[in-house]
Design goal:
Elements: E1 2-3, H1 6-12, E2 27-31, H2 38-50, E3 55-61, H3 62-71, E4 76-80, E5 82-83, E6 86-87, H4 92-99, E7 104-107, H5 115-127, E8 132-134, H6 137-144, E9 156-158, H7 162-167, H8 176-187, E10 190-193, E11 199-201, E12 206-208, H9 221-234, H10 239-261, H11 268-278
Parallel strand pairs: 1-12, 2-3, 2-7, 3-4, 7-8, 8-9, 9-10
Antiparallel strand pairs: 5-6, 10-11, 11-12
Length: 280
């Protein structure tokens, strides 16, 4: 078990080529949000942008498209077919088109557990020819449909908190690290078991992240993390490196906010604001 340091995290970040253009820093697709959960999509997209992603495409149900398009200036927001405020199964064809040429995909934050969300998850895991991050509602769906991971040819990163870890089949009564390693092996994925001393493992190599504090225990914090990890994947980091770096910088941003604002009042948007001060 490697305890990740700031020096290690910074060393893993790719250099920014002075002759690069936006296409060189990752084309990433985010499928997030539903009626009542517009913040999840916003926070995930901003996490990706603040972590250096070049092009962020955000697909949301049509009923919340106007909200996201107004809030997000830098992301490319597009509407998807909607059923009662959540994705419709009719969204699958458009999602398949958007997957072409992507460097990484995130699915799940605020997505809900509709039949359309399940169809979207199945499509992404089957068709995406790039790493995929599954978070939040994507994990809850996957807990009921773990067979969707079978035969996947490209890396998958799962980012569960404790309840989601149990829904995936993880043993919450045994040694925390051992249980995470076992579940990563069983599912054939990179697993980010969130919480104090977040564990990142592919079943063989494991990191423990020691940044972060209780002030981050607020809705939306995990959405920011998912966006950061996806951005690092899009910029060419391997799945383990992207997940480990994402956790370290996310936690370090939280620690900076705690020092400057205090743990009681800090918000995920505050972490977004200070993240660029750490990525330099």
């Amino acid at each position: 078990m490697v305890e990740l340091t700031g020096e290690q995290a910074l060393a893993l970040l790719p250099d920014r080529n002075p002759y690069a253009h936006k296409g060189n820093f990752g084309r990433i697709l985010l499928l997030c949000g539903s009626r009542g959960y517009t913040g999840s999509a916003y926070l995930a997209a901003m996490g990706a942008l603040r972590a250096g992603a070049g092009l962020v495409f955000l697909g949301v149900p049509e009923s919340i498209y106007a909200i996201e398009a107004v809030k997000l200036n830098e992301a490319i927001v597009f509407p998807l077919p909607d059923a009662d405020g959540a994705l419709s199964p009719d969204a699958v064809a458009l999602i398949e088109d958007k997957l072409t040429g992507m460097d990484a995909v995130l699915i799940g934050p605020g997505l809900g557990q509709s039949s359309g969300a399940l169809a979207a998850l199945e499509t992404v895991l089957r068709e995406a020819k790039c790493p995929v991050v599954v978070d939040a509602d994507g994990i809850n769906l996957l807990g009921k449909h773990k067979a969707l991971l079978r035969g996947r040819q490209y890396p998958t990163i799962l980012t569960p908190h404790e309840m989601e870890f149990a829904r995936l089949g993880g043993d919450t009564s045994s040694d925390r690290a051992e249980a995470a390693i076992n579940l990563a092996r069983t599912l054939g994925c990179v697993l980010v078991r969130k919480g104090r001393g977040t564990l990142i493992t592919d079943g063989t190599v494991s990191y423990r992240n020691l940044t972060g504090n209780p002030g981050m225990a607020v809705g939306g914090s995990g959405d920011v993390l998912a966006g950061i990890i996806t951005a690092f994947l899009g910029q060419g980091l391997g799945p383990m490196e992207a997940a480990a770096c994402g956790c370290w910088f996310h936690g370090a941003a939280g620690d900076l906010c705690a020092r400057e604002l205090g743990q009681y009042g800090m918000l995920p948007t505050d972490m977004l604001a200070v993240l660029p001060r750490l990525l330099k």
